[in-house]
Every structure is written in C-alpha cells, then in structure tokens.
Specification:
5 strands; 3 domains; DNA Primase, Chain A; 267 residues; Hypothetical Protein Yqey, Chain: A, domain1; binds zinc ion; single chain; alpha+beta; five-stranded antiparallel sheet; Arc Repressor Mutant, subunit A
C-alpha cells in the first residue's frame, strides 16, 4: 500500500499540464489549457486542464480527474501503477507499507477488470485509427465501456483499493440498474431513440456480469426459498428476499426477482 502522504506530496510536485501534454498536445486558452478530448470523439476542443486546480475536465463527456486519474484513464493503469509511473517521471522513489488487509498479488489486475480494460483499449485504439470511419455503434460501445471504467476508477481512487471481481460486478449491476430506470422513464416519455440507446449500453456492459440464470432457474430458487422460509403472505417478502439475494445477486435482474416473489406470495 502506498502512503497517502506520499501521494499528496507527489501531486504537489507534478504539474498536470506537463503530464497531460505528454500524451495530448495542449493549447493555452486564458487561464487554462485545452485540446480535443482524448476520451471521446470530437472536432472542437471541450477538454480543459486547469493549472490552478490541477484538474482536467471535459465538457463533452464529463471525463474529470487529477494527474493520477488522467494516467489511469488514458493509459489504463490501475491506481498504484499510475502513482508509480507518475513518481518515476519526477524521480521520486515510492515508499510501500504492507497493510494487514492487503492480500499478496492484490495489485494484479483481476480477470474481469483486465477484460474490461482490454475491451476499452481496443475501442480506444480503433477510435484513434479512423475517427471518421469508425462505426457510430463502436463509438457508442466505447462510451458505455468508458462510463463503466470511470465508475470503477472513481471507487479505486475514493477507497484507495484495487477492485476485485466481486466489487466490479457490483459496479456493473449498479450501472445496469441506472439504465433500466432511465428506460422506464424514456418509455413513458415515448423517446424510443433514447430507450434504444440505453438498451444498447446494457448489452455492452452486461457482458461483464457472471452468466445470467434462466427464468426457470430463477423460479426454482424462489420456490425453494418460499418453501424453506415457510413464507405465506406479502408480509414475509423480506424473509424470502434475504434467502434469494445471495444466490441471485449478479446472476439475475433483482427488480424482476422481487416482482416474482411478490406475485408468488400474493397467491
Ligand atoms: Zn470528452
């Protein structure tokens, strides 16, 4: 584990303008610097870097962060790797302390995270290769993956951890849930175009969930749970959900599961 004090002094030493400029040529614009955003496809610059705040921000796609966050997002580094790369660039040796909770090898990219990054890097490379020729669908695919990786990155930075697969699954589920909620709203507003976009994004990111159970499998787990808890009415809903949740989390749409339990208990 890298001590927080070191990270702070490292961020005090580097200038985010230099860091970003190594990868994306920046132009001075007033108090800030700007460029075409490296994280989404655009022709006029909406990506800005603030030397006073030491942050980058894109008004087009919402990409946002400090020098460490930029390296993670741009190069696909995990949090500790980004810190090491940044420290190396200014010649600061990185001190390491072993935390008791840290498992050996925890810093290695886990399976799911690695797959997500691989896909992300693939689409980024495609996007760079042929900005105009790239199919709109691929660009949307990249957008959905980028959002997912940004959500994962945010948690890694906030909690100073490398996410394991279980934590990533939770993030993927949350992102899918958000989109399902949007779909319900867009359906009410009769915006089929937006419904389609959300559905497409779900199809891109649900690939990172463990295999989904079939309707029959879900129903049999629910039936077992009702029998095991002796649930008789809607009042026992909580008991049944307590039993099915650990069995189905990440493997089924929990909104639908809870509707199913409710329907069964209603008789
Ligand atoms: Zn952007």
């Amino acid at each position: 584990m890298i001590p927080q004090e070191f990270i702070q002094s490292l961020l005090g030493r580097v200038d985010i303008v230099d860091v970003v400029d190594r990868y994306v040529k920046l132009k001075k614009a007033g108090a800030n610097f700007q460029a075409c955003c490296p994280f989404h496809n655009e022709k006029t610059p909406s990506f800005t870097v603030s030397p006073s705040k030491q942050f980058y921000h894109c008004f087009g796609c919402g990409a946002h962060g400090n020098a460490i966050g930029f390296l993670m997002e741009y190069s696909g580094y995990a949090y500790p790797e980004a810190i090491r790369a940044l420290a190396e660039s200014v010649g600061m040796p990185v001190p390491e302390t072993r935390s008791r909770t840290e498992k050996p090898g925890a810093a290695q990219a886990p399976g799911l995270a690695a797959r997500m990054l691989e896909a992300l890097n693939y689409y980024r490379a495609e996007l760079k290769k042929s900005k105009t020729a790239m199919k709109a669908r691929d660009s949307e695919r990249l957008g959905a993956l980028r959002l997912l990786s940004a959500a994962a990155k945010q948690r890694e930075v906030d909690e100073r951890i490398t996410l394991d697969d279980a934590a990533l699954v939770a993030i993927v589920e949350k992102e899918i849930k958000k989109r399902r909620e949007s779909i319900a709203q867009y359906e009410k507003a009769q915006r089929q175009d937006l419904v389609d976009r959300e559905k497409f994004e779900i199809s891109v990111i649900e690939v990172y969930l463990p295999k989904q159970l079939s309707q029959a499998e879900v129903e049999s787990i629910v039936a077992e749970a009702i029998a095991a808890t002796g649930a008789k009415s809607a009042a026992d809903m909580g008991k049944v959900m307590g039993v099915v949740k650990p069995k189905l989390a990440g493997k089924a749409d929990m909104g639908k599961v809870s509707a199913l339990v409710k329907a069964k208990l209603a008789g």
